[in-house]
From TrEMBL:
Any single Pfam family the record assigns to this protein: DUF2277
Protein name as it appears in the record: DUF2277 family protein
Length: 74
């Protein structure tokens, strides 16, 4: 779908994904889905809210994934 979004789970990423990694992926996703690289002022709030919500969903997803053969952090 969007080549700019990289895999954020181990072993594709050698260390744990950072907030910056997750936000960058969310931003690329919203850009792709909306068709806007940068939204107009009247769409900024919706665009930013979507990036925030997708970043949070990414956190939840990565925190709940169990990768076989990898030790769970904790």
């Amino acid at each position: 779908m969007c080549r700019s979004i990289k895999t954020l789970r181990p072993p594709a990423l050698p260390e744990e994904a950072t907030e910056e990694d997750m936000r960058a992926a969310a931003l690329q996703y919203v850009r792709k889905v909306s068709g806007f690289r940068a939204p107009a002022a009247h769409n900024r709030e919706a665009f930013d809210r979507a990036v925030d919500e997708i970043t949070e969903a990414t956190h939840r997803l990565l925190d709940s994934l169990e990768v076989r053969g990898a030790a769970k952090a904790g």
